[in-house]
Amino acid sequence: MQFKIREGRLADAEAVGMICYEAFKMISQQHGFEPDFPSFEVARDLLLTLLSRPDVYSAVAESEGRVVGSNFLWQDSTIAGIGPLTITPEAQSGRVGRGLMEDVLEHARNKHFAGVRLVQAAYNNRSLSLYTKLGFEVRELLATLQGAPLRIDIPGYNVRVAVVEDANACDSLCRKIHGHDRGQELRHAIAQQTAMVVEHEGRITGYATLIGFMGHAVGESNEDLKALIGAADSFAGPGFLLPARNSELFRWCLKQGLRVVQPMNLMSLGLYNQPSGVFLPSILF
Q1: Beta strands 115-121 and 217-219: pairing type?
Q2: 4-113: which CATH number, 3.40.50.720, 3.30.1360.200, 3.40.50.1100, 3.40.630.30?
Q3: Domains 4-113 and 145-263+271-280 share a fold
Q4: What pLDDT does residue 26 have?
């Protein structure tokens, strides 16, 4: 397939939204999993938001005047996040996916990001192979967890809605655990009133931008994450992502009745610091 790659436009939202919805639906159903996007409208609205954000670079592939795929680079942190990458079924075995990945990686290099990361569906052999060939390394096996809200309080760990005055303490905690903060993402979540903090012995010991697919969390201990998970009103999207090697927290979640809905891989290229505390990644990283 002959194709070209250009920067995305708002007018692409319908086309790339349909491709995104159909691509995720097809691969997930082939493997017996629920699609990440429940409807075309949800996929379209997400990609319309990405196409309109100045801190997100978009790449669109065209063949014979028709959109056949897209990819996105989130540029709101020291580390850049990639995705979603989706292409039409007829382009699956061609070079389109590689071309879209190489385009956003070149953009990341030109912007001098310390590293790039993504989260990949572990059952998708094709994308796992592509990302590995491009130099990515698997850093964490993730379990996507979903279920009814737990409504559990952890004694000594108070959870409340985050406010702007909490941001610096949360940034400091994130830097302590990951080596970098996610300040812009955090402040956006505070403005949207989805962010929460957990306090223990009079200080902030954990926070979450959202307990769900698009949110991340960090904590000094598993008790912090238990408190945040226990206080969540729902687990947005397909669920929240938990590193499977955190056996204590994983078992606790399962004992509370949460279920694994799909396995995923956190992958990185460039700078990666082994986390020095507990965390929940977002679908980006």
Answers
A1: unpaired
A2: 3.40.630.30
A3: yes
A4: 92
